[in-house]
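Subject: Sanity check before I submit

Could someone independently write out the structure tokens for this chain? I want to compare against mine line by line before I put it in a report. The sequence has 502 residues.
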Amino acid sequence: MNSITTTVETYRPAMHFAAKDTWLNDPNGLVFHEGTYHLYYQNNPFGNVHANMSWGHATSADLVSWTEQPVAIPCDNDEEIYSGSIVVDAENTSGFGADGKAPLVAIYTSAYKPGSLHEGTQAQSLAWSTDGGYSWTKYAGNPVLTRNSPEFRDPKVFRYDGPSGSYWVMVAVEAHDFTVLLYRSQDLKSWEYLSTFGPANGTGGIWECPDLFELPLDGDSSAMKWVLTVNMNPGGPNGGSAGQYFVGEFDGVTFSSETTLTAGMQDPERVPDYQWLDWGRDYYAAVSFSNVPGGRRLMIGWMNNWQYANHIPTSPWRSPMSLVRDVSLVSVNGQPRLLQRPVPEARATSTPGPEQRLALNGPATVEGGTAVQLIDITFSPGDAEEFGLVVRGSADGTVGTRIGIHAGSGDLIVDRTHSGDTDFHEAFASTSRAPIAAAKDGNYRLQIFVDHCSVEVFGNDGLVSVTELIFPDQAQTSLTLYSTGGTADAVLQLTNFEKADA
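---
Independent answer below. Compare away.
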């Protein structure tokens, strides 16, 4: 589509965080501290393409409204500041605290530049903050862990307390070896190798941004499991960047997966069977927050894909973050599976509209479509071959983003080939598919968050998600339901967000 009319803010999201006028990618250093959620992220402070990697910073009290802060850890002549994590060092094991105040400690990857002492390598370094995460001091003894490798990165650190003892654990990757490496430390400065996991399942691209955390299975605190997530680029189930996960046990030394389907390099035929964090093309580098109260596990990802990331038609900013997700672990047909739901805070300030019931036999336009809204919808299949809806559509029905269910093949479909501006990169116009099964009552339930430049689709109460960028004209706000090859019934409820077009 070449007729799209845009302004600087046409695609700026209303429900998602994006930097004011710069580039962002991976979420970093996610931490809750003293009543505030901190979102750090890979940021180019000087432009809107990937370069000059530094840690940008945003804060929130509610996981929904984010305030951009000054750059937290800038690049310098020696290093770019790649991805990593933050811990609250409550016992001041690092010695960085002062006046009885526990420090925040950032563990990040130093990507060393030509001419620097460690030129050509990536290694793990520290910085600390004693003012709640707003100003940071780099440790003079950096790097604290190196393998003299050019692709050793993305440390996620957490406190382990278990049968093997009490200490800090780091999970990082050797990106091109498709491996996750585990280390431990008592003081965050000296690290001891523990073990290696991988290659396994998806290995169609380099491994990045790992995470390791514990969750109760089916809410049972006596049945705890460990979840290892690792992001991969390319090789996702629908092309380009994606994230996968493994469920198993961690004894303080070794992670053992019980959900591995292919050890070693992937079997291309098994890719649809692997456990993906999201089946869409725009959910990458997802990691979880540290120190969240109540045992809540919260994750957020970068909404973009390295196939076209530097080319999406937004200016002067480029790339948003996903919604924050509550993550839990449930049994499905006897197997542990991640359940991902948008945090309830995402809809807390808005009131749903009336319930609408429609009998579908072809297309049906629904009143109330807007550029930014939540659509809760339940489909009863009838005899239709496919049923679904078209969001952010044009009045004449020629363009829009199709979100459909093909019950016969068990596919959830997100088709953005006619979603608006798709010509900026040859890889963008695409149709993504994800597996979906009917609930026990035979129905299909979707929760769809529509924003100025994205759709996030959650199916079957969060068992499947598909996240996609879209770039429609501002005038594309129509909502159409449809069935093909037969009939279906739908019950929907629309929630329009008061702040959506502010």
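---
OP: Matches mine. For the report I'm noting this point. The mean pLDDT is 95.
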